[in-house]
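User: Here's a chain of 257 residues. Predict its fold as tokens.
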Amino acid sequence: MDISIDFMRRIADAAAAETLPRFRSQGAVANKEQGSFDPVTEADREAERVIRALISAEYPDHGILGEEHGSENISSRHVWVIDPIDGTRAFISGLPVWGTLVGLTVDGDAVAGMMSQPFTGELFYANASGAHYEGPGGPRRLTTRKTTSLAEATLFTTTPALFKGDARLRYDLFERQVQLARYGTDCYAFAMVAAGSVDIVADPGLKPYDIVALIPIIEKAGGVVTTFEGGPAERGGDILAAATPELHAAAMAALRG
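Assistant: Prediction complete.
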């Protein structure tokens, strides 16, 4: 099925009405994970609430999986996957590299998605018509770079500290093979793969709501998104996104050691 850009804009606008007034406002931050720090804010919860309401009104038979408010009707063939603020740590730090992620799966396959960054006024989305951008500079189709060599690639990861044990040793060797490595930016780094500014993102331990929306955006722009082992990325896990199939294969081989 196709999802109209008008519906994605409505979702982006509704979420922005909840997130932007709370951004850089020094609001309360709760911790969801005892013994660690997994922040959540009122903006996360309220943005997901309005997104779920829009989806339920438009597609009452569809299921929903959200980071903050759980799941409903996920036995449906059509399931929406929501991360109201991907990059809450950036959000509470005042950095505009967080985004609202909303994706649609059909029979488990990601077929449409959007990433909205309302502070910068950017919307990245994919539907049946392809992958697109709206924002500063004007609308355009998204196209990945044609990089095929690790030696010419720009790599992002949230932080190398997420790689544990032998995986950290393999990551360090991998990073030394690329031209430029940078850290952080969460969903924004994945959007930059689709936009042709970044070549590789390698992030371990992602949840479905961290990646489902981004899969069709990258794939329809010409990139590849899988687990480190080459499996489907829709269920999360250790996720590798690359600008070209050749670069993806090289990165996957490097991460395997």
